[in-house]
Amino acid sequence: MAIHVIQSQRIDVLLDSMLRIVNQTARHPFEVLQPRHFIVPSPAVESWLTQKIAEKKGISANSQFHHRIRAFQWTSYQWVLNAPKEVEQVREANIPRIIIKWRVFQALRKCILPEQIPLDVDHPLYSIVKRIYDSADRLEQGTEKQLKKQSMLYWVAEQVSRLFSHYMDYRGYCARNCPPQSCSCPTNWLEAWGQDVALDTEQMIYSPKDENGHEMQVADFVKIQARELEAWQRWLWQHVFQEDYAKILEIERLYWERLENPETRSEALKRLPAQIVVFSLLELPPSQLDFLRRLGQYIDIYIFHFNPSQEYWADSVDPDWKAKFDLQREERFIQRFEKTRQRKPNDAELKEFRIKQLNFNAEDRESRHPLLTRFGKQARDHFSLLSKLSSGEEGLWADVFVDDYQDKLLAKIQSDILYLLEPEQHQYALSPADDSVQIHVCHSSLRQLEVLKEQLIHWLAQGTEQQPRQPSDILVLSPNLKELEPAIRSVFAPPPREREIGSQRLQKDNLYLPIQIAGVSRLDVSNAWRAVLGRIQWVRRRFSIEDFADWLSLNATQQRYALDYSQVERMLQLLTEAGFKRGLDQQHLQQSLSAGDDDYRFSFKFALDRLALGLAIPEHTMFEDTLSYAKVLTSDFPLISTLIQIYQDLVQRRDWLTLHETGQRTPVKTWLEYLRADLNEFRDAGVESLKTVAEIIDKQMRMLTLADYHEQDDSHASQELVALSLPLPYVLEEIQNTLEMQLDQAEPTGQITFSQIGQIRPLPYQLVVMLNLDSGKFPSRNQQVPFDLMRSLKPQLGDRSRLDDEQGAFLDALLLAQDNLWLFYNGFDLDDGEARDPSTALQELIQHIAFICQSEQPDAEVDPVVEINGLSVAQHIQQLYHVHPLQPFDPAGFADAQTPRYRDQWFAVAEYIRSAEGKRSSWINAHYPAVEQKELRVLKGDEWIRDMIFPARLFLKSVGISTIRYADLPSSREPLLLNKLEQYQVRDFLLQQDQQIEPSLMLDCLPVGKTQQATWLSSQQEQQLLQERLLQLGKELTPVTQQSLQFSPELIIHISVPQASHSSYWLSLQSSSASEKRRAQIWLEYLLWLAYLNDDARSPELERIVIFSNKTLKFSGLSSTKAREYLQFWFKAWEIGQQQPLVLPAELLMKKEWQWAENEQGKMTIVEMPELLKAWNNSYESAKPLASDESSLLHQDWQFILQDQDPDLALQRCCHDFAHALYAPIHQHLEWVK
């Protein structure tokens, strides 16, 4: 029985060694049935090890994996202490971090309830509680301030939970075998805190020494800060967690007592595995190593350790630290020399100082290989701890390092680290064909991914039968994977499904590369969880029609309520037409409306009541204070029933997020039960993607059950801790964080694997890619945990830091890349195009490569540089650099032979740009192919008229482009004032009524607030004025009907004409004003009416009269033959307008009656063309925005159509060809009736 260490710089060699050991012949037949136990640092290593064992042995079974030594430690406690009561004690004592967090919150919650700090200045908690109060000191007293303090407290609890979990690993063990209850080790804070003994922080603060070995003075504020941190953390530990920690120590004592007692040892060893394999280490707290060493006295423990170097390097130091330390000591020597001798030391005196004074213990240490000692600090500490076993007294110590490196730059770096060779300047001859290390410089993260995709296609294509390359050979790392995830899914999206059209198949330019983003929740899981949260969260927000539409469009929501896409569209249409804009109901709106505002229309409940009443009364009428909706169809009944169910679900959960604001406290267990019930609703409806969330909730329930049981078993526990209560937002935050931050669960996949840096290590890949190695992004600047005493006080061997973790991950990527290492960073600023430096880690690697590679000028003080597309690089390593242009279709990117490019769609664009001559042609210079002619075409008259008075609409419709306008979207705000369109709708509704109506029938149209009555009165007055003008004419409104006009053998138009064919006039009433385009509209209606009648004898006497809100218009005096002649011009323009832009907006051409004159070619042209152009180029907004002003070239449709051409020239051409024939006759027959 012993603890054995086998180390190598190759993971595959460690694997082979491990298989040889675990496959040794069993001494007993039944041993083959015993499970093999492996301790691995992460799920990634577990997955990789399982796969490799299966490949080597043909099967991988009966293996049990434990993630990290601590997990195995607690499992072994349960094996040995197997009595029912002991098993429960072990389960209770292992407190998860989330329980620590919640208990800290509960313990400090009473301290933040009063308006003023309830603690004395001398109280240990005063400093941290004051920080919480200070975070909310700018807010007024009340709910908002209390919520801010509560939020800050929860953040503090999160940080403290991280710290205490860390302390239990690194500051809770005795390193000197001190007597019980009297340990004075600097690594055993927790025992001192348990006895309420303060740490001597002033002595434990790290302070540098001067040249005489005397410690330098530490600033007072550093001492005060350390003293305050220690005080409140000691208080929390003693009052909240000391009893729990004492039980942990008791379990540990019982465990070793059971193993060391000869009477119980044999029975305990039967429950422990005979052999444990520890495969690679990412963390090694000394206490856990001591556990393994002690356990190794009873069972065989094999540690397979990944060690970058075969040499002894435990005493190597960071070269940057070494140089900085030397400089600081020399500066202090110079200052002291000047002070005592009143002059500066000369070169000889400085040299003597360096020889005599710098020879002390820390300085005798060597840096040796700078990359290893700079980035491998944690690996060095692990090796230093394990080296205590190298004597062979406790077990086998075996080195299985192999020297099998190719003649490439990457292999050279790895080999130098293996042998711990100090770099020799300009000694390595870099082969021109060496591409083992590549540095790709881009402008953005998206561009990095685009470049990466092309380079991966090329790399995979280089595989051969003898040396195949698979997507699973590629690992892509990023320091900010979550931010990069949407861009990854976009760039590496699977291609559209192939479809056949006739005999031609759609071609795809892109190859599909299978990828997997490890450690990030799937989109379907996130969206399904959003659907569950929607019923809880939207009620506490604005809850607009847009929010509801987004939530209803989620697949999980549709599955829950058994809806499809068309039903969702219809539901949203019903709600919009019924008046839903924002707010759930009256109670919800009251939270945002001012006092005295009791207008609760346009809410979800308002629209739903209208729809529900419309089921029984499908008319526009009032019934018991509810305005019925008249357009409900029979097929809408189940949809309205579903909307009622949704409303009830929302109401049921309306107060969940704010119960804590009312002082009501709900146990966490209750919240989890509510959430589980909600999840089951969705899962029962078939939403299987919520299984992951359900597992998270079940895990929290199990942890909480153990914590509650533990507290109930404690007679001294307060009722507050037994019924652990938290606001629901904090519970949801924990679930969301667990769901999103699954980086610790990252595993290798059989595809191209994207992962966060540091999560999949230490595993070998043929190609390792590192993205976003930008300054400030890697290493991360905001990874440190606040309040960490371990950072403030002297470090101990084996301590772990996030900075060292990330630097160690960078070193692992460098060492475990078998064939190629690609390093990407953003080398240019997107705004100004200036060059930007990469991260310090990449800079140091580049400097090292430049130092060791041969140069044409080896004796130069500074390496000669060369500029590559604006980036200055060392000339002798320029082949490593691939500087990519900003855009993927830049022709320069395809001209660089050094960087292979895939000929995808971007290549076609680049070829077009490269071969283009002069200005690219615009739409107006090329005819768009006309729609394929059918034997007979049928048009809707009103649609045709709208197209002709605004021909931009005609052209865009012909080329298949749909424009979305803001006005087309449903409004999410209640109308405080009616816009022009809404005013028109009110007036139009009044015109359609045969008698006086009550304002209640206009509840869905009138504005909210005090303007409601004023709008109603003004609309009534306008309606009365129109009726008076109608009486003055002495004529009645003309009923109309739909008829078909066969204008030509191949063209039929559906038009509106007077119902009575013998009518001598056509009179209509419109609530809108007589604008330019409406005049053109009435003119075209007049022409179509006369053409339909086809009666030259009677038609000149017919009148088309329209009473507008501001004027009365009349067209008359035109024969049917002349009307058909004019229509011929309009239809000719219609044909042309489908093939190229017809720049003749009626709103511009009808601004005035233009003067016409015949030009040299005999064409009638507008005399006041400069005035017309001035109106066309108007840039001053009036009541109508220019983007929607059809008479302006700044209209969004004209801007889109006329891009890259002269809008004035386009207008002049169209006026020259069509304006006189189309618009001159209008003014000849137009008459304003007074």
TrEMBL record:
GO terms for molecular function: ATP binding; DNA binding; DNA helicase activity; exodeoxyribonuclease V activity. It holds the Pfam family Exonuc_V_gamma. InterPro entries: P-loop_NTPase, RecC, RecC_C, Restrct_endonuc-II-like. One of its GO terms (cellular component) is exodeoxyribonuclease V complex. The keyword Ligase does not apply. Signal peptide: none annotated. Keywords: ATP-binding, DNA damage, DNA repair, DNA-binding, Exonuclease, Helicase, Hydrolase, Nuclease, Nucleotide-binding. GO terms for biological process: double-strand break repair via homologous recombination. The keyword Hydrolase applies. Residues 942-1148 form the RecC C-terminal domain. It comes from the Bacteria. HAMAP family: RecC. Belongs to the RecC family. Heterotrimer of RecB, RecC and RecD. All subunits contribute to DNA-binding. A helicase/nuclease that prepares dsDNA breaks (DSB) for recombinational DNA repair. Binds to DSBs and unwinds DNA via a highly rapid and processive ATP-dependent bidirectional helicase activity. Unwinds dsDNA until it encounters a Chi (crossover hotspot instigator) sequence from the 3' direction. Cuts ssDNA a few nucleotides 3' to the Chi site. The properties and activities of the enzyme are changed at Chi. The Chi-altered holoenzyme produces a long 3'-ssDNA overhang and facilitates RecA-binding to the ssDNA for homologous DNA recombination and repair. In the RecBCD complex, RecB has a slow 3'-5' helicase, an exonuclease activity and loads RecA onto ssDNA, RecD has a fast 5'-3' helicase activity, while RecC stimulates the ATPase and processivity of the RecB helicase and contributes to recognition of the Chi site. This is RecBCD enzyme subunit RecC. It comes from Acinetobacter pseudolwoffii.
